[in-house]
């Protein structure tokens, strides 16, 4: 099980790193942190709290993204990584709307939709690759 967890979180970190790179160097790209901030703000509003430090809010959203994506990748079949990634990207676009959030930051244009799905496919393929490397020794012993 630890190999699945390591692979899942490796894929999630790769997805986040790619997103940060693309966001820094290109225009009109998905803004995952805006969705995460909406989730945190909505959750804290329910208990009458606010986060005033934007850096802390941003860091919390990145940590939340890595945690949830890491768990998602770890629990899915690595042999179907492309499908898993595409479904994850679709879910990332559809779920916010279902939760009463604005999904425009990640699904507002066709370009953002394609990039969002691409990010999740990338993360899933990386997770599958890490898992394959971690299990290579087991296969050699058989």
What is this entry, summarized?
Helices cover 80% and strands 0% of the residues. The chain has helices spanning 2-25, 32-45, 54-74, 81-98, 104-107, 110-141.
Q: How far is it from the N-terminal to the C-terminal residue, by CA?
A: 19 Å
Integer average pLDDT: 91
Strand tally = 0
Identify low-pLDDT runs.
Answer: none
Strand content range: under 5%
Q: What shape does the CA trace take? A: globular
Number of helices: 6
- Would you tell me the structural class of the helices and strands? mainly alpha
* Helix share bin: over 70%
What can you tell me about this protein's structure?
- This protein is mainly α and 142 residues long.
- Helix content is 80%, strand content 0%.
- The protein is built from six helices and no strands.
- Helix 1 packs across helix 3, helix 1 packs antiparallel against helix 6 and helix 4 packs across helix 6.
SSE layout:
Elements: H1 2-25, H2 32-45, H3 54-74, H4 81-98, H5 104-107, H6 110-141
Keywords:
142 residues, mainly alpha
């Amino acid at each position: 099980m630890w190999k699945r967890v390591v692979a899942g979180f490796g894929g999630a970190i790769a997805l986040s790193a790619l997103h940060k790179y693309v966001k820094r160097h290109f225009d009109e790209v998905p803004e995952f942190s805006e969705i995460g901030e909406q989730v945190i703000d909505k959750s804290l509003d329910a208990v009458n709290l606010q986060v005033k430090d934007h850096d802390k809010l941003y860091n919390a959203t990145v940590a939340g993204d890595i945690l949830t994506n890491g768990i998602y990748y770890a629990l899915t079949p690595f042999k179907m990584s492309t499908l898993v990634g595409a479904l994850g990207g679709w879910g990332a676009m559809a779920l916010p709307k279902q939760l009463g959030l604005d999904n425009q930051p990640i699904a507002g244009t066709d370009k953002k939709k394609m990039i969002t799905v691409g990010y999740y496919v990338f993360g899933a393929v990386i997770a599958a690759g890490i898992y394959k490397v971690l299990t290579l020794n087991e296969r050699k012993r058989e």
